[in-house]
């Protein structure tokens, strides 16, 4: 926990410096262009987990949370709550034999600024691909907007996690 706090302090300092620099270099946006879009898209869940595996995870995480000495400030307890939410969603998908989920992707164009929103925590490599595919404008990819659909990991992240046995 102490290491995480120190890391967050470093990240916060970098963020503050970048915001201050951005404000110093900011220029007015004068435009008569405003457009919006919204579309619902089906996304693959691509899970290889079995119902038995998910039930085991749920049982393990519930045991942590229901323990007499469960401490909500402990990392293990907080992560158990996070895993339980995800496992519950995965169990629903497995029980329905649902291989896709429907989520909204939306955007706002204000002059050269493009605000693109997705309900996923989008990995940086995917954001880079999106930015590279946009021929003009300044794209800002925003994750976890209009809901929380889970992770959108890139293939490199998935391959590395598979080797380590992490990142369910």
What does this structure look like?
The chain has 168 residues and is an alpha/beta fold. It is 48% helix and 23% strand. It contains five helices and six strands, in the order αβααβββαββα. The strands form two sheets. It has a four-stranded mixed β-sheet with strand order 1-2-3-5, covered by helices on one side. β2 (100-110) and β3 form a beta hairpin. The longest helix is centred in the N-terminal third of the chain and has 24 residues, at 2-25. The protein starts with a helix and ends with a helix. 5% of the residues are buried. The model has no long low-confidence stretch (mean pLDDT 87).
Integer-rounded radius of gyration: 20 Å
Name the structural class: alpha/beta
Mean pLDDT: 87
Strand content: 15-25%
The helix/strand order is: HEHHEEEHEEH
> What spatial form do the alpha-carbon principal axes imply?
globular
Main beta sheet: 4 strands, mixed
Number of strands: 6
Distance between the termini: 22 Å
Quick summary:
The chain has 168 residues and is α/β, with parallel strands linked by helices. The chain contains 5 helices and 6 strands; from the N terminus they run αβααβββαββα. A 4-stranded mixed sheet has the order 1-2-3-5, with helices on one face. Strands 4-6 form a two-stranded parallel ribbon.
What is the strand and helix layout of this fold?
Layout lengths: L1 H24 L8 E11 L6 H16 L8 H21 L4 E11 L2 E5 L2 E3 L1 H10 L4 E5 L7 E3 L2 H10 L4
Parallel strand pairs: 3-5, 4-6
Antiparallel strand pairs: 1-2, 2-3
Helix pairs in contact: 2-3
């Amino acid at each position: 926990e102490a290491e995480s706090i120190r890391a967050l302090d470093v990240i916060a300092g970098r963020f503050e410096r970048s915001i201050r620099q951005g404000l110093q270099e900011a220029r007015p946006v004068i435009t008569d262009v405003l457009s919006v879009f919204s579309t619902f898209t089906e996304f693959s869940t691509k899970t290889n987990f079995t119902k038995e595996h998910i039930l085991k995870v749920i049982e393990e995480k519930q045991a942590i949370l229901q323990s007499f000495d469960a401490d909500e400030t402990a990392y293990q307890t907080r992560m158990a709550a996070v895993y339980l939410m995800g496992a519950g969603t995965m169990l629903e998908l497995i029980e329905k034999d649902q291989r896709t989920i429907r989520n909204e992707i939306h955007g706002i164009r204000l002059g050269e600024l493009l605000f693109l929103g997705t309900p996923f925590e989008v990995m940086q490599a995917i954001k880079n691909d999106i930015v590279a595919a946009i021929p003009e404008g300044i794209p800002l990819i925003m994750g976890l907007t209009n809901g929380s659909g889970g992770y959108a990991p890139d293939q490199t992240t998935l391959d590395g996690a598979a080797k380590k046995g992490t990142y369910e």
